[in-house]
Each structure stands twice: as structure tokens, then as C-alpha cells.
Amino acid sequence: MANEQKGSSGTSILSLPTEVLSEVLARVASSSSTDLFRAKLCCKLFYEVSDANNIYQRVSLDKFEIVLWQKNHKVSRFLKNCRESKNPEALYRKGVVDFFTDKHEDSALECVEEAANSGHADAAYALGIIYIFVGRDELKCKGLRLLKKSRILKGRVKLCSDNLLALLRMIWVKNLVFLNPTSICFAMTHERKTSSWPMDADEVEESTCEDCACDEEIGTICAALPYR
Ligand SMILES: [Zn+2]
Question: Which residues form the F-box domain (predicted)?
Fold first, then answer.
């Protein structure tokens, strides 16, 4: 092996088939957008391979502000590319921000649904909450099922709730559906639990009225909302 390598210049990353290089760059992108941008500056080939859907779809957005306070066309274009390539985090952010600030409600909901369907836990939680707020009967049940039974959210409800609240604290909530939530459980004798949804449904007795649990969950969200 050592002798074989002596005569050649070794295996260069540039000699990799494009699909392999693309996969390498996608993995780099998924752990750090900064590293991806550095890689793009290395050479023309890296630059070209990086400008592809699979990279936009997987790139980490950790380094990007959730709400852009100043217009930045480069960043906006990059995030748009991410959404068009179905990057779940990009779809989740756009969908939640737009829905709660009452912009393009239908397409916002589609973004959150798409992110949730691709396995994004925060999006699944946000979708459950939105369904509960906006829905009656069928949609409300769908929201409840998502929060209580979804495999993606198993053991992660509290974390996702905290993440959604952190996002909502950065924006002005203008969508009227969140302003005056009506009580879901009408049973006067039901006592509200003080805690939120069970972290893990298997560990907690399923004795609580589902509608009460629903009221508690949306109550937590409403209590933390900054309105304008
Ligand atoms: Zn109840």
C-alpha cells in the first residue's frame, strides 16, 4: 500500500466523484454553515458542488438569527434557497414566524407541516399548538394527537415548548387566533394540573382530561406571548 502511494500523488479530495464530494460537503454543512462557507472559498469545484439542493437542504442554521433585524439580501437569498430545498429548520422558522405574525397564513402553515412531516420535532410541536388554537373538533384532535402521541415528540415536549416560546419572544404576535383563546374543557369540576404535558406518556398516568391538558398547554404559550 505504502509503495503504491509513493509513485502517485495520493488520493486528492478533488479526484473524488462529484456525488461523493457532494456528500462530504453536505455533512460539513450539516454541522456548521461557517465551515461550508469556508469550503466554498477553497476552489471553484467546492463552490459549484456546494450550490446544490442537497447542501441547502441539510445545512445547519444554528449560526443564523431566527429573526433578521436588518435586511440582508445575501442571507435572505440563502435562507430562501434552504426553504426551496426543503431544509426543515428553515421551513419551521419561516412558518412559525409568518403564522404568528399573521403573514401568509396558508403558506406559513404549509411550511410548518412540511417541516413536521420531515421529522423536525420543534415543527411538530408548533403544528400541534397551531392546530389546537385554530381548529375545532377534527383539527384540534389532530393537534392533541401530535402533542401526545407523536413519536418525534416522545420525551421532547418540554424542550420543544421552550424552543417555541424562545422564538415567540423574539416576534410580535399579531395573529388574532392567539389573542383570545377559548377554553377547550368546559367541565367545571375538572382540576387543572400545574405542570405541562407529560414528558413521557409511558411514565405518567393517563388520568388527566385531554381537554384540560390542552388548555394547560395553550395557557403556557399564551402566558408568554408578547402581543402588539
Ligand atoms: Zn377537563
Answer: 10-59
